[in-house]
Specification:
about 425 residues; mainly alpha; MetI-like fold; 3 domains; three-stranded antiparallel β-sheet; about 5% strand
Length: about 425
């Protein structure tokens, strides 16, 4: 800050008074500058605090989903409970639960404990017995060993989300079921470990069996479609507008519309995709193809704007030197200007794709809210994505799904952090200072 020169003493006004007034104004200006810096620092600290609260809340709620409790049980495939002509009609879950109660040494004359034990075990145990008996009927009358996650409520109990201090009427597990779970843990039937199923299974109606594999594959397919369309089309459109298009009223209108499209709410693109790609073109609903097309439309303005900014950053001397040695306009652009602008182009592209990866509203409009239990096999198959999977799980009634919702958010944030870190690395590694 440059101090103004002191004015000379006016008529009847001492120089000391003038100096005092100037020093007072300088103090006021310096105080205003200090206040501005304080407000700026306070705003940054408040933003960091809110971010810390958000991430901390998500982390505290979701970290336990990366741990799972599994139960390993030897099960006798009781011939008295299975009709060989109709193996699917047997109640395998109750058969397993009754044997568990007997193995724990609990008396169950009324059968209530068997029903209680059935509710704390995962239905996956019964499905495992059914599948093995269906493939090999000779297993009837023999003992097989099963390994599966514990039930969702039992899993939350072992993780300490609630216990006996809560009144029985206010929790999903009864005192009988808590006794069974305590006995199982005392006898070493339950073990904990990393929840690999969260990444190797797809969605399920049972929280303990639900995973993100289908959503991750669906997001990858959708992002591949988006990149294959938005990157080349956006880059070439930006090159034409910046390097070849004449400066007239038409190009001005095009540029204004591109800037406006970058600010259009994402749900509008979802409505466009529903009307054009699904209702008019007849493309399959809830598929990565339609999702990729919608997100490509949304990412195009960002790619074009970022590419044009990178092209403008290349000094005119590069173009003049190439033209001066006989290069054509096209050779100048594609052999010299565009390679020099490529770090900025790649950075803008990665940021646009990261933004597309986290979009939810347009995907909900094209039907990516349905329950999809498997992994998509093609870009036209029904699929879920990470954002829509988070939306579905958060609206589920089971408490364990909320834990997995936070874990899915952590996974999604991890992907976005990696993509943004790649953009920062490319910009710092290849960026040139002119």
């Amino acid at each position: 800050m440059t101090d103004a020169a002191l004015p000379s003493a006016g008529a009847g006004r001492p120089a000391r008074d003038i100096r005092t007034a100037v020093e007072k104004r300088l103090k006021a200006r310096h105080a205003a500058e200090r206040r501005f810096r304080f407000y700026g620092l306070a705003a940054i600290l408040i933003a960091i605090a809110f971010l810390g609260v958000l991430l901390g809340r998500i982390g505290l709620q979701g970290y336990s989903a990366f741990e799972t409790y599994t139960v390993e049980l030897p099960v006798y495939v009781d011939p008295s409970r299975i009709d060989p002509a109709d193996v699917q009609g047997a109640n395998y879950d109750l058969m397993i639960a009754d044997q568990l109660v007997t193995r724990l040494g609990l008396a169950d004359p009324t059968g209530d404990l068997g029903l209680a034990a059935k509710d704390v075990l995962s239905p996956d145990l019964g499905f495992q017995v059914l599948e093995q008996v269906r493939e090999d009927p000779s297993l009837i009358g023999r003992t097989i060993t099963l390994d599966a996650p514990i039930g969702d409520d039992a899993d939350l109990y072992y993780k300490g989300h609630y216990g006996r201090e809560i009144v029985e009427d206010d929790r999903t597990l009864t005192d009988q079921q808590l006794t069974i779970l305590d006995r199982m843990q005392d006898k070493g039937m339950v073990s904990s470990g990393f929840n690999t199923g969260l990444f190797t299974r797809s969605d399920s109606t049972q929280p303990e069996l639900a995973g993100l594999l289908g959503a991750i594959v669906g997001s990858a397919m959708m992002l591949a479609v988006t990149a294959l369309l938005a990157v080349p089309i956006g880059t070439l459109a930006a090159v034409y507008l910046e390097e070849f298009a004449p400066r007239n009223r038409f190009t001005e209108i095009v540029e204004v519309n591109i800037n406006n499209l970058a600010a259009v709410p994402s749900i509008v693109y979802g409505l466009l995709g529903l009307a054009v790609f699904i209702n008019w073109m007849g493309l399959p609903r809830s598929s990565p193809l339609v999702g990729g097309l919608v997100l490509a439309l949304m990412a195009l303005p960002t790619v074009i704007i970022a590419t044009r900014s990178s092209l403008k950053a290349v000094p005119p001397s590069i173009r003049e030197a190439a033209l001066g040695v006989g290069a054509s306009r096209t050779q100048t652009v594609f052999h010299h200007v565009l390679p020099l602008a490529m770090p900025g182009v790649m950075t803008g592209t990665i940021i646009a794709l990261a933004h597309a990866l986290g979009e939810t509203a347009p995907l909900l409009m094209i039907g990516m809210i349905a329950f999809v239990p498997g992994v998509p096999e093609a870009i036209t198959s029904a699929s879920s994505t990470l954002p829509t999977q988070i939306f579905i799980w958060e609206n589920a009634s089971e408490r364990a799904f909320h834990e997995r919702t936070a874990a899915a958010i952590i996974v999604l944030l991890g992907f976005m952090i990696v993509m943004n870190a790649a953009a920062i690395f490319l910009r710092s590694r290849f960026e040139r200072r002119w």
